[in-house]
């Protein structure tokens, strides 16, 4: 009877071999494999997370934006005196032609976006610049200066926003300057030059001069001003500076 109950040695060896085979084929968890899986690198970040990091403001962005705004505010303040002297001379040559100089009051928005490459950069730098200008003193009203600065910032950002802040080049910079010029030219016609018709000679010359100045000063000048600043190494901590260094 004992011979029928006791399993044979062949059966025992076969069962052991099957158990070992099942373990090697993954039926039993392998600790070494689990450790290796845990050490594998995470998958690539999603585009949404990447964009969120790219658009997030840092303390360096805020500090550099504030410094840029103050510097531009000083330029605005100095230009107030220069414009008061130049405007009658240029306007005497051709009424409305002095508008070609207006972009020296709003080039900061385009320059800010090119350097910081963050949504809201133009509005932020424009408002800081306007605050600095107001502290230094000027002949314009508080409401006019800040409302104009905010609007100019919004229009300066539009071409960059349409590219999702991925394209930064001279044509986009020129488009930014042109849009701000269009906004400011119409703003002046509606609220400062109420007695001038859009279709009058002065109105037409004013709008053309504003657009030409916007493209050349706010667009082209801002682009090359950025390249000059980047060449000094001052922007090496920013994407805008690294792009120029690697070019």
Your description of this structure?
With about 250 residues, this protein is an all-alpha fold. The chain folds into 2 domains: about 10-40; about 60-245, Arp2/3 complex 21 kDa subunit ARPC3. Helix content is about 75%, strand content about 0%. The chain is built from 11 helices and no strands. Helix 5 (about 60-95) packs across helix 7, helix 6 packs across helix 8 (about 140-160) and helix 7 runs antiparallel to helix 8. The longest helix is centred in the first third of the chain and has 35 residues, at about 60-95.
Compile the SSE list and pairings.
Blueprint (H helix, E strand, L loop, with lengths): L1 H4 L3 H16 L6 H8 L8 H9 L3 H35 L13 H10 L4 H16 L5 H21 L7 H22 L9 H31 L7 H8 L1
Helix pairs in contact: 5-7, 6-7, 6-8, 6-10, 7-8, 8-9, 9-10
